[in-house]
Design brief:
By secondary structure, this protein is α/β, with parallel strands linked by helices. The chain is built from nine helices and seven strands, in the order βαβαααβαβαββααβα. The longest helix is centred in the last third of the chain and has 15 residues, at about 165-180. The structure holds adenosine-5'-diphosphate (2 copies).
Length: about 220
């Protein structure tokens, strides 16, 4: 079962992906986390991606597709995966369909978490991320038990460089221009299920779980 979580930056894809992956025993594949891992390890791919990420632009399709293809072909994705942040362009969506066909699978369902821009800005401005495990918190809406410390592994939480106000605006614009066409792409295939992402984390999870079970 391959599931694609769609939505603008700050919609709650990472937050929901962790909950849903646990529920269905699926591997969580986040293209953003893969890029950040490469950045931390200063790999060639990380160095290439860095400038794009800092500017809030998309990393070119060819390198992004190659990175995700390598990840999805590992054994822990053989029975399915939860994709978060990929695909982000129509070319990536076509490439995904090809990769899954090779694995004998296909996209099962595309929950689209919809949230208006002004809410996204507030969410990204208050987002704190664990550099160790990738878990995300919000200082107001989803705080850790101890301020600044990850509940799971005790690491010191950080604010991502690309969550600065000017980069956030650029990322939202890039999403509108390059990723929004995917809403129609998956709607035409009958896979899209729109979920109201302004509700609480628990309510959004419930709606997504219901959509996947029906899909
Ligand atoms: P994305 O992966 O789509 O960029 P995140 O899952 O990182 O989004 O969420 C962005 C921020 O919003 C985080 O700080 C997260 O804790 C918070 N958040 C996620 N879902 C909700 C929600 N339903 N209500 C309020 N805040 C939320
Ligand atoms: P968010 O969910 O908050 O938008 P991500 O962690 O998914 O952020 O992505 C962070 C950055 O990584 C993006 O701004 C972009 O530069 C790069 N990136 C992640 N996924 C992709 C992708 N599928 N295609 C191109 N660039 C990507």
């Amino acid at each position: 079962m391959y599931i694609v979580l769609l939505g603008p930056p700050g919609a709650g894809k990472g937050t929901q992906a962790q909950i849903i992956a646990r529920e269905f025993g699926l591997t969580h594949v986040s293209s953003g986390d893969l890029f950040r891992e490469n950045l931390k390890n200063q790999t060639e791919l990380g160095k290439l991606a860095q400038g794009y990420m800092n500017r809030g632009e998309l990393v070119p399709d060819d390198v992004t597709i190659a990175m995700v293809k390598e990840r999805i072909s590992r054994s822990d994705c053989a029975n399915g995966a939860l994709l978060d942040g990929f695909p982000r362009t129509p070319a990536q969506a076509d490439a995904l369909a090809g990769m899954l066909a090779e694995l004998g699978g296909k996209v099962h369902c595309v929950p689209y978490i919809s949230v208006p821009a002004e809410v996204l800005i507030e969410r990204l401005g208050g987002r704190w991320t664990c550099p160790q495990c990738g878990r995300v918190y919000h200082e107001k809406y989803n705080p850790p038990r101890t301020a600044g410390v990850c509940d799971d592994d005790g690491a010191t939480l950080i604010q991502r460089d690309d969550d600065k106000a000017e980069t956030v605006e650029r990322r939202i614009r890039v999403y509108m221009e390059q990723t929004m066409p995917l809403i129609e792409y998956y709607r035409r295939q009958g896979l899209l299920v729109e979920v109201d992402g302004t509700k609480s984390i628990e309510e959004v999870s419930r709606d997504i779980l219901a959509a996947i079970r029906k899909g």
